[in-house]
Design goal:
The protein contains 21 helices and no strands. The protein has 539 residues and is mainly alpha-helical. It is found in: Cell membrane.
Length: 539
């Protein structure tokens, strides 16, 4: 197929697969992967091959950037040791255990380490689809690990491939030095770009240009870092995390609203497209293979998949006890999690498109010009492990989460209430001063103050109910009745918005107003609806 045809087919499959996944109540990655696999074997569609650079230089920076903008830096700092051990230590251990198994299955040691590096990192795309099922801390640990471990794995991958093709000769010390240099360089590039972007956006007044800078940022971070032989992954993540802290006061509200919509849709399409493309690749992976080769690949896949999943489970159930023996501080004791609580994170070790892209990037020939032995087996095993882990872990993860009995993080809701009440208090305190500066009539000030006070009462009642301190049944029922009344008002306002829209559209249809006027008024009504939906009280 031509490139445009591939784009259309992939887009349609993402739409159909997402709808089908909701209908059959299966994880979307599984359904998208299955659809891509089926369509890949249809006449005229097979033969689609995903260039590795498309994933590594187009998909990966964009997805990592948005993930880094929407993750909690405070939580990362609190769990930095665990995240570092998972994103660096576990990657290296997994690469080693998979290399041992790969060598036992017939691969040379260099190619076995290539396979280990390919399958060592978890996939941020797949994890993003299940992270919402987990409490804040468990969710942040998974997302932070998947943000960084690609950088570790790609460094090991580059060294292993260089040794396999005969262009590089380094020992463990050389790998360690490359890791340190890669991370240090990536952090430096990310920090430098974050401050440059902040200064540039401080001087821009056009919302469109602001968001052009935002769209370019992950790619401008990734490419220079890679050209400097640093980690592009670390550069993107560092840049994103830094911007969440220093650019909040610089980026305009209009730009933030526009960017949120853009990145939400873009990352949804990129995530879905990756799973479809992985499925489409199966045809190219098995094409021309004999039955014996495919059977060998299936057996090797099962062994390697078991090794990948088993290594993660063993690591997750031994390292915490080592840390406990060494660190007995009271603060660390409060953060300890039992076996049940750790299990979802250990089981959510999906592999995805980055692994497949890395496998496809392995050269077909050595530096001497001969064929690179073991590449075909490596490619089949990589694809097989991706599918096996997605199917097995994806189907069973909801049950594992139920078994773990993870409790919601009560602090998250309390912090949101605190932020809303603090913002409202600041507005109330500044109301008279701002009104005097702007020359606002007292009647308008009174209406705004009354609205603020009503909202403050609602937030107060919500907090009282949420912290569980109310025990008197009559008192609690009265409070709930007040909140129910506020919810009724909110629903009435939302229902009236539909009538407002109908009236405005009717004016346009009667040629009483222009389409431009229609869009402006509709935008105001849409903003009002977003505000009403955003303040919906939680049960």
């Amino acid at each position: 197929m031509h490139a445009l045809e591939v784009v259309v087919v992939v887009g349609v499959l993402v739409l159909l697969g997402t709808l089908l996944a909701r209908w059959v109540r299966l994880p979307p990655p599984l359904v998208l992967l299955a659809l891509g696999t089926v369509v890949g074997f249809l006449p005229g569609v097979g033969g689609v091959e995903m260039p590795p650079d498309v994933v590594l230089f187009l998909f990966l920076p964009a997805l990592l950037y948005w993930e880094s903008l929407t993750i909690s830096l405070r939580q990362i700092r609190a769990d930095l040791r665990v995240i570092s051990l998972m994103s660096v230590g576990l990657v290296l251990v997994t690469a080693g255990t998979v290399a041992v198994v790969g060598h036992a299955l017939g691969l040379s040691w260099p190619m076995a380490f290539v396979l280990g590096a390919v399958l060592a990192p978890t996939d941020a795309t797949a994890i993003a689809t299940v992270a919402g099922l987990l409490p804040r801390r468990a969710r942040t640990l998974l997302r932070a690990e998947s943000l960084v471990n690609d950088g570790t794995a790609l460094v090991v991958f580059g060294v292993a491939v260089g040794v396999a093709v005969g262009t590089l000769d380094v020992g463990p010390g050389g790998v360690a030095w490359r890791l340190v240099a890669s991370y240090a360089g990536g952090i430096a590039v990310g920090l430098a770009l974050a401050f440059a972007v902040t200064e540039l956006r401080r001087r821009l007044t056009d919302v469109r240009l602001e968001n052009v800078v935002g769209v370019l940022t992950p790619f401008v971070a990734y490419l220079p870092a890679e050209l400097l032989h640093a980690s592009g992954v670390v550069a993107v993540v560092t840049c994103g995390l830094t911007l969440t802290q220093i650019a909040t006061r610089v980026i305009s509200p209009s730009a933030r609203v526009q960017a949120a919509g853009f990145w939400s849709l873009t990352t949804f399409l990129l995530n879905g497209s990756l799973f479809v493309l992985v499925g489409l690749e199966l045809h190219a992976v098995v094409e021309g293979r004999s039955a014996a080769e495919i059977w060998t690949g299936v057996v090797a896949t099962l062994w390697v998949a078991l090794t990948v999943a088993g290594t993660r489970l063993v690591w997750g159930n031994t390292l915490p006890y080592v840390i406990r023996a060494l660190d007995r501080r009271p603060a660390q004791r409060l953060r300890r999690v039992g076996f049940r609580g750790r299990l979802p994170g250990q089981w959510a070790g999906f592999r995805g498109a980055v692994s497949l892209a890395a496998a496809l990037a392995v050269p077909t020939t050595t530096a001497a010009g001969g064929p690179l032995e073991g590449r075909d087996l490596l490619l089949m095993v990589t694809f097989g492990v991706i599918v096996v882990l997605l199917v097995v872990q994806g189907l069973t993860l909801p049950a594992v989460i139920r078994f773990s009995r993870l409790q919601p993080d009560p602090a998250e809701a309390q912090e949101e209430l605190l932020a809303q009440r603090e913002a409202l208090g600041a507005a109330q305190a500044a109301l008279d001063v701002r009104a005097a500066e702007l020359g606002v009539p007292e009647a308008v000030v009174a209406r705004v103050r009354e609205a603020h006070e009503a909202r403050e009462r609602q937030l107060h009642l919500t907090q009282v109910l949420s912290d569980g301190r109310v025990t008197d049944p009559d008192h609690r029922a009265a409070k709930k009745a007040v909140l129910a009344e506020a919810e009724s008002e909110r629903r009435l306002r939302l229902a009236l918005l539909a009538d407002k829209r109908d009236a405005v559209v009717r004016l346009r249809d009667l040629h009483a107003i222009d389409d431009l006027v229609l869009r402006r008024v509709m935008a105001q009504l849409d903003a009002e609806e977003v505000r009403l939906v955003g303040v919906q009280p939680e049960d």
